[in-house]
Design goal:
The protein is α+β, with helices and mostly antiparallel strands. The chain has 5 helices and 5 strands, in the order E-H-H-H-E-E-E-H-E-H. Helix 1 packs antiparallel against helix 2. The protein is globular. About 10% of the residues have low confidence.
Length: about 180
């Protein structure tokens, strides 16, 4: 089945995009930490989080329609975005890349690749490579203090690290964090 890339359409893609977001978040929790991390990631995925995240996506897309690019199975058949589920049904969102809009570049003085996800059934078929190319193209069009595309990746996520290494990413600083409850 073919996969087409296009800008996210809130009217037709919200459910499919959020299904991918859920899988992305659950994968982070399950694959890069223990039970506590998995529970923390799962615990945030409420209906309220869905509404806030999709509203934020909508604000970003209002700045630049390509900042959320979706990969749609069978996207050339006119049904793009209408079906969902992750199994490759025609018109289904099977992946996405989210690059923050240019107005947020000052966060890192660079373009920020916020998220990239491809459903397991579509991995190994160049969908992630195509999404990365779209992200790099969008970043190259932004007016940035530093000409680079940045992201954070958990060092325990070997699959993601290998993908980003293959696409020319290299370590640039280190992200640290602390809990706000203490």
């Amino acid at each position: 089945m073919t996969v087409a890339l296009r800008p996210y359409d809130p009217a037709t893609d919200a459910d499919g995009l959020y299904d991918c977001k859920l899988a992305f978040e659950r994968g982070l929790g399950e694959n890069t930490g223990g039970d506590d991390k998995a529970a923390a990631y799962e615990g945030k995925l409420t209906d309220g989080y869905r509404e806030r995240w999709l509203a934020w996506v909508g604000r970003c897309v209002a700045d630049d329609e390509w900042c959320v690019t979706v990969a749609v199975a069978g996207g050339d058949d006119g049904t793009a975005g209408r079906d969902r589920g992750g199994d490759g049904t025609a018109g289904e969102v099977v992946g996405y890349v989210f690059v923050l809009p240019e107005r947020l570049a000052m966060i890192w003085d660079a373009a920020v690749l916020n998220e990239l996800y491809v459903a397991p059934a579509h991995r190994g078929a160049d969908v992630a490579d195509d999404l990365m190319a779209a992200a790099v193209d969008l970043a190259a069009d932004q007016s940035l203090p530093l000409d680079r595309l940045v992201l954070d990746v958990d060092p325990a996520n070997e699959r993601a690290k290998g993908f980003y290494d293959r696409h020319g990413f290299e370590s640039w600083g280190e992200m640290v964090a602390r809990p706000l409850d203490g």
